[in-house]
Amino acid sequence: MTQEPVTEEHRTVNADPTPSATDAAADKLRDVVADRETEGPTGNSTIFGLRGLTVYYADFRAVKEVTADIRENEITALIGPSGCGKSTVLRCFNRMNDLIETARVDGSLTYHGVDLYGKNVDPVEVRRRIGMVFQKPNPFPKSIYENVVYGPKIGGMKGNLDDIVEESLRKAVLWDEVKDKLDESGLALSGGQQQRLCIARAIATSPDVLLMDEPCSSLDPIATLRIEELMLELKQDYTIVIVTHNMQQAARVSDRTAFFTVDVSDDGQRTGKLVEFDVTNRLFTSPSKTETEDYITGRFG
Amino acid sequence: MSVTAPQVPMDLSGDPRRQRRERRVRSLFFVAAALSIIISAAIVLSLAGEAWGFVTAVDPASYFENGWLPRRGRYSILTIVWHTLMVSGIAMVVATPLGLGAAIYLSEYARRNVRRFLKPTLEILAGVPSVVLGFFALNFITPNVIQPLYAADRSNLLAAGIGVGILIVPLVASVSEDAMRAVPRALREASYGLGAKKWHTSLRVVFPAAISGIVAALILALSRAIGETMVVALAAGTSGILTWLPDSSGLTMTGAMADLAIGSDQVTSATAVQVNPFQSLFFVGLMLFVITLVLNVLSERVVRRYRQKY
Ligand SMILES: Nc1ncnc2c1ncn2[C@@H]1O[C@H](COP(=O)(O)OP(=O)(O)O)[C@@H](O)[C@H]1O
Ligand SMILES: [Mg+2]
């Protein structure tokens, strides 16, 4: 897990930027969201309900009291400065934090109304329904084919998996590039292709939700655009929650955006919190909190 | 504030004293590195002469007759090689599942505080003198484990094999655990993220990704098993008669060498074969040296050839 502390440098650089620069940044974001609806999609029901979700690593409280509703068949973006707990929150959705011995969750998190941290919930079952794509592409050192069928196979699927491979790779817009070399190593692909392979691998288990933790941060701009287009297409079938460092990206792809930041207490404890959660267009054009406004205009972070 | 211009012409030749010192240090390290080669060569040379004396004196056809009995001039290489194969085979059968099981447990399952306790324990086991394990095999494994189930003699090759197996478990476990822990966390997360259970992740992702290190660990352990002397000498006794089953006493290559070197079997009688039994010791020693060398080179190769990039 990468931990990028918010450096002091970070903050002083942006402490008092020239007005024109910040206006330009904000204008650009407004341009991006200009043609998006301000009301956001309606009629989509809640898939994840967060109520006072608080996550600790041992004694360290990483994020506190997050309350939000994430809706089906939408793309929800989590944005905010490094270390504000975006990944931490995201990794609660598929119980990935269980892999960290010290991690502990308070408050409640429901998935289709079921308490995800309930007593008889098996994280393995959760992860079969809620797929994840990571920051750094992490294909298995196996063939492209084996990468895609890994999930279905462990899910107990037998017999001919060729159709699943083709369908998943097509959905991930990778099929045409790899159809003649399915038995080559997934590691032989370019970074962007590897990430699309990871998306195909996640899709192959026919999940309900795709979680993406900065999926484009190690990719070049062209590969980034392809992944963004892909997300917009996948939205028809899946609910997507994406963590991104890049506000432009959030503005381009997401329906709703959650802005997190870090609270620094008097004794120097840094705790992440959710500041504002709204339809993307509104969050970027008329944020209701000054913290949000400062962030999107580049005065912070 | 004015910037001083660099001196022209600049002298970049460096301090000659420092350079001399660096050359001296360099040659010191070179000698240290070369020493291992020199020692290996010296071993081969010292073995080769006497071994050659053995080869010229003993009819190669007799290598495949029954019995390693130097006192009577009988040098059945087949006998001691077969006994060695049995012992190291049994040792690997014992050590592979135990060692790999321990490695998987330590690297994938153990919580941090369990691991903190288990890993040093394993390393202590690795430090148990082999004479102690030999004694354990002879006085515990044979009467309590083997004899109730299997009609074996008091000294037998099975006990030796099990003893050697226990001896090499820590080696297998610790080298393969290192290989498994070197597998990046990202690969495990990818697997868990797809809904894999722990054993699935261990066996289908971590294990294959670490396979080169694991195979290297096994080859290294095999080479250690072949070379192990003390456990075998104590548990398997000193019978030079060929036995196809591990139920009786039998000399292995190392056992035969120890037996000769200790001096219990040095009575040279005026037999047909005119060879100093001591020379056979060099011949067997050379064989062991070559076998372990080949195995070690093989393990290097495996590591390089099958290393998966991740
Ligand atoms: N495994 C961990 N153990 C301890 N602290 C962690 C761990 N992972 C993250 N943290 C801490 O939790 C805070 C939030 O981290 P993270 O969720 O990764 O932030 P973000 O993704 O927004 O950059 C940071 O202060 C980070 O140092
Ligand atoms: Mg993060």
Descriptors:
heterodimer, A: 301 residues, alpha/beta, ten-stranded mixed β-sheet, 37% helix, globular, disordered N terminus, B: 310 residues, mainly alpha, MetI-like fold, two-stranded antiparallel sheet, 70% helix, 1% strand, binds adenosine-5'-diphosphate, binds magnesium ion
Written overview of the protein:
The complex is a heterodimer of chains A (301) and B (310). Chain A is α/β, with parallel strands linked by helices and 301 residues long. Chain A is 37% helix and 24% strand. Chain A has a 10-stranded mixed β-sheet with strand order 5-4-1-2-10-9-3-8-7-6, sandwiched between helices. In chain A, strand 1 (46-57) and strand 2 form a beta hairpin. Chain A is globular. Mean pLDDT of chain A is 86; it is low at 1-17. With 310 residues, chain B is mainly alpha-helical. Chain B has a single domain, classed as MetI-like fold (Orthogonal Bundle). A two-stranded antiparallel ribbon of chain B has the order 1-2. In chain B, helix 2 (77-109) crosses helix 10 and helix 3 packs across helix 5 (157-181). The model of chain B has no long low-confidence stretch (mean pLDDT 88). Chain A binds chain B through residues 1, 94, 96, 99, 101, 124-129, 131-132, 134, 136, 138-142, 150-151, 154-155, 187, 198, 201-202, 205, and chain B through 111-112, 184-197, 200, 204-205, 208-209, 308-310. Bound molecules: adenosine-5'-diphosphate (ADP) and magnesium ion (MG). The site of magnesium ion has 4 residues of chain A, from helix 3.
